[in-house]
Fold each of these.
Amino acid sequence: MDRFGLTTNNITYLVMGDAMNYWKFFPAEEPWGHMPVWGFGDVVASEAEGVPEGTRVFGYFPSASQLVVRPDRASETDFVDATPHRQELAAAYNRYLRTDGNDMYEEENEDYEILLWPLYFTSFLIDDFLDDEGMFGAGTAVLSSASSRTSSALAYLLHQREGVEVIGLTSPRNVEFTESLGVYDKVVPYDELDSLEREPAVYVDMSGNAKVRSAVHGHYQDELQHSASVGITHREDLGGGSELAGPDPVFFFAPARLQKRNEDWGAAGVNQRLADAWRPYVEWLGGWLRVEHGSGPEDLERIYRDMLGGRSDPAVGHVLSPGD
Ligand SMILES: NC(=O)c1ccc[n+]([C@@H]2O[C@H](COP(=O)([O-])OP(=O)(O)OC[C@H]3O[C@@H](n4cnc5c(N)ncnc54)[C@H](OP(=O)(O)O)[C@@H]3O)[C@@H](O)[C@H]2O)c1
């Protein structure tokens, strides 16, 4: 594996490592664990039929230079890792896409694919879910951690839907950046939530922040038509949802929604829709995302600690290589 991305999503894998089995993908000897990352790698040796040496793939890796997989269902587009310990884990993480069989792949956009594909994928599925549900009868979508890549990708998609107003909630320091993205109709710092008009709305929670969730539910009361829990960027302010006004929050898990759409549309139908929406999105990304490259454990630790401390610049995407 020669390059991978680092965003808050990777930290969430660790926060949820026990609860959602993320430590189990790439087991390490106690007390160590491998942080899962999304990246590109080359097949350097193969005894598997249909997976020739030299094949370049995109997928889920440990933050390490090498991974041994046991390819199954190999085709011209992808294969699945059938290593026994991965079989009980969510299927979406076990699939490796070949660059030579993937219509969406462009070598010059590898960094974007690493940094955004899994997040964009999630946003695509949330946008589709909200549309499928007729926005639960609401005209407004309120997104927390609006400066995050997952939220901005969702805002980008929702913004294109007629009759949907997209409101972003973010930290005061990220208001200006979030406004500059141009995909939110309104951007409001967390502590000014009360300035919003009370109208039928859905809440898509990327922050996991218990106080913000309670404030959103408290503000919209029965006008809140749906509350989706997606992320936990504010991992230090998590908490239960007792005594919330309005509907109970429902966890949105992208791999589960993907499974449903695979059944509805077939894998090829899903891939086609994703690819069609991906290209213009990448063009939009090119207008604001600055990619910074790093290499080796020192860069990884520095960037990881900045991210952990909430000091990262949301306009910067970090692409790393494992180093020697
Ligand atoms: N459920 C699913 O299937 C699914 C799928 C994909 C991703 N997700 C989740 O979506 C979330 C967003 O991931 P991402 O990779 O898009 O994030 P990202 O782009 O790295 O998000 C950065 C933003 O998160 C907030 N943040 C990050 N670290 C923080 C800290 N230490 N303290 C306070 N705020 C912090 C800040 O936003 P604000 O200032 O705007 O709050 C920051 O601008 C993650 O929790 C991820 O796991 C869930």
Note: The chain has a mean pLDDT of 95.
Amino acid sequence: MFILKKIGCRAFQLAFRAVLPILPYREPRVISSCAELDGVFKEENTKSVLVVTDAGIVKNGLLSPLEDTLKKSGVRYCVYDRTQPNPTVENVEDALQIYREHECDTLIAIGGGSSMDCAKAIGARAVYPKKSLESMGGILRVLRRLPTLIAIPTTAGTGSETTLAAVITDSEKHRKYALMSFPLIPRYAVLDAELTYTLPPHLTSTTGMDALTHAVEAYVGRSTTKETRALALEATKLVFDNVERAYANGTDREARENMLLAAYKAGIAFSKSYVGYIHAVAHAIGGRYGTPHGLANAVVMPYVLSAYGKSASKKLRDLGVAAGVCTKDEDPDEGARRFIDAIRELNWNMAIPSKLTGIRKEDIPEMAFHAEKEANPLYPVPKLMTKDELETFYYQVGGIECAQ
Ligand SMILES: NC(=O)c1ccc[n+]([C@@H]2O[C@H](COP(=O)([O-])OP(=O)(O)OC[C@H]3O[C@@H](n4cnc5c(N)ncnc54)[C@H](O)[C@@H]3O)[C@@H](O)[C@H]2O)c1
Ligand SMILES: [Fe+2]
């Protein structure tokens, strides 16, 4: 990378780091079941709710406890259940129309990151009727207060219930982009492990690896605080101790609870300390091919971490200690190697492949272009990389011979 660009990226990141303590972060109020929402509706004087979800959640009967509470509380509601995995601009606009038609004042997202992000974006559009979603992409572009937003995660991965991000797919341009603004942090989060019991093994594994990716990227980045480092280490330990248990037995209450906690903690960590090239590379794959977010992250993670080399080895060793795969007096390079191997092993044990099929060589330059644009200068990665360097990851992940 040109030296001037490097200096520019690092200066931008330093400026953000300096203002970190004064930025208006907040956490949602956490409640433990849908039944408790009755009190929230009274407190917020809720009149009309748009429930944002997807077909899988409805099919699995996960809406019932929420609908029971809404009915018992006498709150009017309607349901938008057409959110797609990797929610699109069209999803948001369709749901917004329903929100307006029913004069809603509250959004409740029940589902994975897709439903939660869709609801966040609906809220942003509701308060900025003249702005397009695309124009609100990037950092700190949404400043107005959103309608009351309640997030009920049914996957343990994205942490969207506590993050400032909403990731939206532009299906025409085949790209994903993130809105990152404080008003997008939900006001309430319902963390109820029972809602994740029906999550099938292949989604338990990949969404769990998304949570791990948040923790790892937040920790190895250069904008950490004491708090985010501690949260990232705790989340890493929780994932290593619980994800395989939840994968093997969906109704293991303790494992499910711990995975929800891991996703939540990692969500706070990366909201304050950002993600890195794993997410940037994975988002471009998701935007182009619709690959599930957690799967793309899980596959990309070992390649990017290996490429960071010495710039991240000490921190990766720390994460290895939290994961229980090395000791703190281990040589950093060896510790990092062990941690990356442990991630590969976790993937292997949960049938996550080491490569992705379907990546087309001709798409690689454009995906690398989007990844570079997403990450530089915003993400405080341990080692800055150019578009050409990022291209290498797509060759590796796709198992395609590199021309260079
Ligand atoms: N906002 C953020 O901070 C943030 C962070 C990371 C990722 N994301 C975004 O979140 C999206 C991915 O979210 P996700 O990984 O949670 O998956 P998802 O919301 O896309 O859901 C995936 C599938 O799982 C099903 N599902 C969810 N919960 C279930 C349950 N309990 N039982 C049975 N089926 C269930 C859904 O019906 C859906 O078919 C991506 O668009 C990604 O970019 C957002
Ligand atoms: Fe993620």
Note: The chain is about 55% helix and 10% strand.
